[in-house]
Write a structure and sequence with these properties.
About 50% of the residues lie in helices and about 0% in strands. The protein has about 70 residues and is mainly alpha-helical. It is flat and about 55 Å long.
Length: about 70
């Protein structure tokens, strides 16, 4: 049982913030892509001319060994 909800909320927020700061770039991208491809995106509305793509591609982030496109 949580005896002090405000103290619990503050501790939880600090733990979540630390976990996010500790993520690698790859983990952050994977998390972002997972959110973008989740059912949450069913709630989002996009114009007809929007062409979604990989966040990593949009940011120009390549994995080692990927061919450079020009």
């Amino acid at each position: 049982m949580i005896r002090d909800p405000e103290a619990y909320r503050k501790l939880s927020e600090e733990e979540r913030s630390e976990a996010l700061r500790a993520m690698t770039v790859e983990e952050s991208i994977a998390l972002g892509e997972a959110l973008l491809t989740s059912e949450l995106m069913d709630l989002a509305e996009f114009p007809d001319d929007d062409h979604p793509m990989s966040l990593a591609i949009a940011l120009g982030i390549r994995r080692p060994g990927d061919a450079v496109r020009g």
